[in-house]
Amino acid sequence: MKTHSFSGILSLFFLVSVAWLAKAQQVDIFKSYKASLSIAGTSTLHDWTMTSDAFTCQGNFKLEDNKLIDVKGLTLIVPVKSLKSGKSAMDKNAYSALKEDKHQQIQFSLLSTKLQGENLLCQGNLTIAGVTKTIELESNCVLQADQTLVCKSKTSLKMTDYKVEPPSFMFGSVTTGDKITLDFTLFFKKLNPTNTL
To answer: What is the pTM of this model?
Structure first.
């Protein structure tokens, strides 16, 4: 009788452990359904901003107790001509500086992530105007009550690091600064039923 009871306890413990591990190692595929990107900089005349909402983005997100702890296989693509400042002359100069005739997309491919408090420290390859550099950025991702995932990130870089000459206007009388700030928010929805590792 005692042997059966002990075996039953072991079986119950095993089932509970498996269920906990499956939950803890939940991996879901999310696809971005809405996004906003802004690129902000300065000039000798005034500050400027270009925005886009034309992302293509998908990734594998690892959740633990409904909290994001890791991301893999994430690629973000932004068409250069989707960037708009509200001023056609500025847009035209920006597209030229970004070599849009040869490189129609800005792309970010995630290499690794590290959990840092409530945020994820992400390392990845950013390609602008055909030049690829490895960058680090911090991302805050929150799973909403409706199971959508909202990720916000911000980073700064220099245009000349990507062999982009800062655009000028009015026959060179107005020049833009080299440093720009990328600020983006991604909204993801789950594509697949929960998988377990």
So the answer is: 0.78
DSSP state of 159: G
Confidence of residue 46 (pLDDT cuts 50, 70, 90): confident
Residue 159, CA distances (Å) to 26, 101, 123, 179 in order: 39, 18, 19, 6
CA distance 43 to 39: 13
The C-alpha R_g of the chain, in whole angstroms, comes to 22
CATH architecture, range 27-196: Beta Barrel (2.40)
What tokens does 180 get? 């720009």
3-state secondary structure 36-90: EEEEEECECCCCEEEEECCCEEEEEEEEECCEEEEEEEEEEEEEHHHCECCCHHH
What pLDDT digit, counting tens, does each position of 16-37 carry?
333 433 444 556 677 778 888 8
Give domain limits for the chain: 27-196
3-state secondary structure at position 11: helix
22-23-29-31 Cα dihedral, nearest 10 degrees: 170
CA distance 131 to 120: 25
